[in-house]
Each structure stands twice: as C-alpha cells, then as structure tokens.
Design brief:
The chain has 434 residues and is of the alpha+beta class. It is built from 14 helices and 19 strands. Helix 2 runs antiparallel to helix 3, helix 5 packs antiparallel against helix 6 and helix 7 packs across helix 8.
Length: 434
C-alpha cells in the first residue's frame, strides 16, 4: 500500500536480526518461503518499481545481505550424500532434526527462492544446491513412484534419492512442488523449460485421472488424492490453489483447456465457502458418497462435499485462486467472491488484537476461536484480497499482457530474470475484457 513510514520501520529492523541464533528449531521450507522470500521480494520492489519508498539505500541493500546471511545459516541442511536437504534444523548447533526423509513440497519449494538469491548475488552455490535437490523430483525413481505421468509420490529418502511411496495429491506436503514447476518456467523460460514440461505432464494427468465430480453435485469439480492408481475422494483448503495454478499455466502457455479446467476448480472451491454457515471453507473435506457421515447427509446432498476437518486457520488458497481467475479473465465475479470471503473472514475471525483461527466453519460464529494467527494471513489472505481490487501495476499477474513478476508460494513477488512471457490472449472472453 506504499506507506513510507511502515517501510522504513521494517527496513530499520531487518539489519538487526541474527539469524544464526534462535531458541527454536526451524523448518528449511517455511524459513525459505517466508523469511528468505520476503526479504528478496522487498529488495526487488524497493530497487525497482517502489524505489520511491526507498529513504535509506543502505537498509535496502541490507535486505540482500541478510538474505545471503540467512541462506548461509541454512545451507548445511544440504550436506547429505545426495544433496537432498533435511527440513528440520537447529541452526544454532548446525544440526538436523527428524528422520531420513524429506517431502515433495519440502524439497520442491526451495528452487525459486534459492535460484533468485544466486541471480541477485552472482553466487551460484545457492541455485546449485536447490536445483540438485530438485533433480531427484524431476527424474523420479523408482518408476513405480510415478503412477500417472508427472504425478509422483510424497516422501523421498535423503540418503538415496529414491521415492518411498506412490501416494500424492495437490494437497499439503506435495502442493507447491507442482506450483513451482510452471512458476520456474515463468521466472526464466530459457533455463527452466524442463520444469514446464513436467508441469504439463502433471496437469494433463490430473485432468485425465484425478478430476472428480461429487455424485450429489455433478456440476462441481475437485482433484482427488491418489495412492498408486487408486483414487481417494478427499481434499483440503491447501489444494484450492490448484485452480489458480492451472489458470496461470494456461495463460502463459496459451492453453484454453487449462484455463477452463482451472475455472472449474475455482468454482468447486468457491462452493466450499458458499455452503457453510460462516461462508468460510474448511481445512479438509471429502465427497466419497460411500462414507458420508449420517449427520452430514443433507449437507452433502446440497453442497457436494462433507467436512472432515471443519477448522479454518486463516488459509489463503481460495482467495489466491480468485485472484488468478480475475487477473486472467477480468471477470468481476471473482472480485465479488474475494470480497465476500474477506467480509466473512473479518466478521468471524477478527479479535481485539488481530485474527484467530476457528474450530468450525459450519457452526455459528465459527465455533471456538483457537488462538492462532499465522503469518500467511498477512502475506497472502490480506495481500490477495487487496491485489484483486488494486489498480493494475507491473507486479500484477498479466500486466499489459506479460508476467514480469512471479509470486512465490507465500505470495512474495519476484522480478523474473528471463524474457517475460507474453500472454497469448487465452482466458478473456469478449464480455470480460476491461
């Protein structure tokens, strides 16, 4: 929102942080997508289109210096026989935590941030570390871990690089691996064409094999989970980024079929909001008509899904996909849906000192406030709610027909380094253009 006083306050604080000293264990994945990405994004914006907010050039340069410091603190995670990192870290002691496996998203959601750090600093070590880890995901072994072309298992042995299962989804633990395949191509098409090819395989397989319509609402579309080639008719709020990801892929590749499928997924996730008492979607839901709880039969018949975890922890993915739907179609319906979601979240989760997760989206007043406020409320929920209504600008998706910036999984925009991809014109109907 371009408030100089707030920018200065943040920039004054960041150089004082000692990332090497913390009393808690950290996640390589979470620290990368939130801390490292946030600083790199601020650097891109304040060195570029928001340089007018830059009242202290030294503090802006400190964003990149602190990003480098943080990566140097974290990079011991990659010191393994394969180069696959551990996710759980004690950075003070430089020791790893947890078992000998890492997850698909944990490994596959580092490459954008660590590559961008290398591109900004000229030091290739960070890109090399993340891309080596990614190579095991782009070339999965054994073959049985890829039950459908492009769709792989969830857990990888750190010592061997071998997948340990063939269970997966577009849900938590796997989601942002698929998200980053197409985003790396947008970031630099000349270097990451093979990532795009893997995304196309996954997208085509998802449409052909995972697309599912609840028996009580055949008009709705969700993506099922899978275990091998067996489908599991359940999903999560986390998976609702998938509509936006298909839309983005369709826009940059000129594929109207991906855009149409993405809009169908967005519509399905909208129903998870529109159908509940609070007009907020649940943490997880299912549509297996052989397992509908008796007390939810009427709800399932009307809504096409039933609640398996009715909590809401301030997640952003539904509004995120509304944002992509609006930017790519310019259909104001998605702005209306985003506003409805924002109003519901504000009405139900607001407290005197912030916002709180809630226990039950289908209970009056959201059930119980469970006293948790995740940082992605600010990074994503509020940001996407703002950007979908904000004036067009260079960091927006499809600004003047190109994507000159790409959002990481925590909604931090990075300036692309390759030639920005010009939109093909797919997505906008004659009544939807602005």
């Amino acid at each position: 929102m371009q408030i100089p006083e707030i920018v200065d306050e943040i920039l004054d604080y960041i150089p004082t942080i000692n990332f090497a000293n913390t009393t808690t264990d950290v996640s390589l994945f979470e620290t990368t997508i939130r801390y490292l990405a946030g600083m790199l994004s601020g650097y891109d914006l304040l060195k570029g289109p928001l340089s007018n907010l830059n009242s202290n050039a030294t503090n802006v340069d400190a964003l990149l210096a602190q990003s480098t410091n943080l990566a140097n603190v974290l990079k011991f995670a990659f010191n393994t026989p394969t180069g696959i990192p551990y996710n759980g870290l004690n950075v003070t002691n430089q020791t790893t935590i947890g078992g000998a496996t890492n997850g698909l998203a944990g490994m596959g959601t580092l490459v954008l941030e660590w590559t961008h750090l290398s591109d900004l600093t000229g030091d290739s070590q960070y890109a090399n570390l993340s891309q080596k880890a990614e190579s095991y995901l782009l070339n999965p072994q054994p073959a049985s871990s890829e039950p459908f072309p492009g769709l792989v298992g969830s857990n990888i042995d750190i010592d061997t690089g071998m997948f340990l299962d063939a269970r997966g989804a577009w849900t938590g633990g796997t989601d942002s691996f698929y998200e980053y395949l197409i985003k790396m191509y947008i970031y630099d098409p000349s270097r990451f064409g093979s990532y795009k090819d893997r995304w196309v395989l996954a997208a085509d397989s998802s449409i052909a094999n995972l697309s599912s319509h609840p028996s009580s609402r055949l008009d709705l579309t969700f993506l099922a989970d899978y275990n091998g080639t067996n489908l599991i008719y359940e999903s999560q709020h986390l998976a609702c980024f998938d509509g936006g990801n298909f839309l983005l892929g369709g826009q940059v590749l000129g594929r109207q079929d991906y855009i149409d499928f993405g809009l169908a997924l967005v519509n399905g996730c909208h129903e998870t909001y529109a159908s509940t008492a609070t007009h907020i979607g649940p943490e997880s839901f299912a549509w297996d008509d052989s397992a509908v709880p008796s007390e939810q039969t009427a709800f399932y018949n009307a809504s096409g899904f039933y609640l398996t975890n009715p909590a809401y922890i301030l997640r952003p993915e539904v509004i995120e996909s509304y944002y992509y739907a609006y930017r790519i179609t310019r259909n104001a319906t998605y702005q209306d849906w985003a506003w409805d979601a924002f109003v519901a979240i504000n009405a139900t989760t607001r407290t005197e000192s912030g916002f709180s997760s809630i226990s039950n989206v289908n209970a009056a007043d959201g059930g119980t406030k469970t006293d948790l406020q995740e940082s992605f409320l600010f990074a994503e929920v509020l940001k996407y709610s703002y950007l979908i209504h904000a004036p067009d600008d260079v960091w927006q998706v499809e600004h003047d027909g190109v994507n000159s910036w790409v959002f990481n999984t925590e909604a931090h925009p990075f300036k692309v380094t390759g030639m920005p991809i010009r939109a093909s014109g797919a997505g906008r109907g004659p009544s939807e253009g602005d």
